[in-house]
Amino acid sequence: MIGPIVTVTVDRPLGSYHPEHPDIYYPVNYGYIEGTMAADGEEEDAYILGVNVPVSQFTGRIIAIIHRDDDIEHKWVVAPEGAAFTVEEIKSLTLFQEQYFKSNISLLY
After folding, report:
1. In contact, 89 and 95? CB cutoff 8 Å
2. Over the stretch 54-98, which tens digit does the pLDDT of each residue have?
């Protein structure tokens, strides 16, 4: 299975801090897919991997889904076309936020 291409609007760019939890630093760009609603009633959230500068928007392919077992929502993992990350790499890059949840990762390639 290959994930679709989506555009992520970045509201927490690489190098920023969570607006409500200032101890959470974003080592990757993070945002949402406008118009795509998630189970929590908000727009679908996504981590952007493989883009090592802050961006305000990014179009890439969904390469994985982080399924949170103890939360209503899950997170998409988006990367540049042709980029690949292992489950362990995704865990490491998203640990800054995912450490607070019990989750598993499904690769889409």
Report:
1. no
2. 999 999 999 999 999 888 889 999 999 999 999 999 999 999 999
> Which amino acid is located at 8 in the chain?
V
Residue 27, phi then psi, degrees to nearest 5: -85, 0
pLDDT in tens, 25-42: 999 999 999 999 988 888
- DSSP conformation class of 72: S
pTM for the full predicted model: 0.94
Beta-carbon contacts of residue 38 (< 8 Å; ≥ 6 apart): 44, 45, 73, 74
